[in-house]
Design a protein that fits this description.
Number of strands: 6
Organism: Solirubrobacter phytolaccae
InterPro entries: Rossmann-like_a/b/a_fold (IPR014729), Universal_stress_UspA (IPR006015), UspA (IPR006016)
Distance between the termini: 25 Å
Largest sheet: 6 strands, parallel
Protein name: Universal stress protein
CATH topology: Rossmann fold
Strand content: 15-25%
CATH architecture: 3-Layer(aba) Sandwich
CATH superfamily: HUPs
Family: Belongs to the universal stress protein A family.
Strand order of the largest sheet: 1-6-5-2-3-4
Shape: globular
C-alpha cells in the first residue's frame, strides 16, 4: 500500500498504529515517509523509531549502499549516520515519543530484521533513497515490501510535502 500524500492518512486505512519504524537516509523521499509517520503517530498516539542503515565496510563493496563521500573509514561512516539521525530527531514534534536505531549492513535486510525484532505495527519508507542506484521502488523499498512480516507503507509525493 502506498501513501500518496503524507497529509492523507486515510490511505493508511483503519489500521491503528502503536509502533512505527521509519527508514531515514537524508533523502527527500525519506522526508516524505517521515511526514506520513508523524501524521499517523499524531492520529494514533503512536511511537516512532527512526532507523538508518550504513554500510558495513568489513563486508565489502557489495554491502555498500550509501555514498561514502570518499571515506572508507567505518568510524567516519558511522558518525555521518549518527549526525543524520540526530538532525532528523531535532525536527520531530516533542509530543511524539521517538527513538533512533542505527544498523550496519544491507538496508532492506536490516530494516526487515529490525521490524521483526522490535515488533513494529508498520514500516514507513520513501520510494527511493540516496543509494548508488538512482531508482531505489527502489531496491530497498521493493525488498522491504516483499520480505517484511508487517505492514509496509511507501511514501510518494513531492518534496514540498516533506516535514521541515
Amino acid at each position: 500500500m502506498s501513501v500518496a500524500d503524507p497529509e492523507r492518512t486515510e490511505t493508511l486505512g483503519e489500521l491503528k498504529l502503536h509502533r512505527i519504524l521509519v527508514a531515514v537516509d537524508g533523502s527527500e523521499h525519506a522526508d516524505l515517509a517521515l511526514s506520513a509517520a508523524i501524521t499517523a503517530a499524531n492520529r494514533d498516539n503512536a511511537t516512532i523509531t527512526l532507523i538508518t542503515v550504513g554500510p558495513d565496510l568489513a563486508a565489502g563493496p557489495a554491502a555498500w549502499s550509501l555514498p561514502l563521500a570518499g571515506a572508507l573509514d567505518q568510524d567516519a561512516v558511522d558518525e555521518d549516520a549518527s549526525k543524520r539521525l540526530k538532525a532528523t530527531l531535532k525536527r520531530m514534534p516533542e509530543a511524539i515519543p521517538v527513538t533512533t536505531l542505527y544498523r550496519r549492513g544491507k538496508p532492506g535486510c536490516e530494516i526487515v530484521k529490525a521490524a521483526l525484532e522490535g515488533d513494529y505495527d508498520a514500516i514507513i519508507l520513501g520510494a527511493r533513497g540516496v543509494g548508488r542506484v538512482g531508482s531505489m521502488l527502489g531496491s530497498v523499498s521493493s525488498y522491504v515490501m516483499h520480505h517484511a512480516k508487517t505492514s509496509v507503507f511507501v511514501a510518494h509525493g513531492s518534496p514540498a510535502q516533506k516535514v521541515e
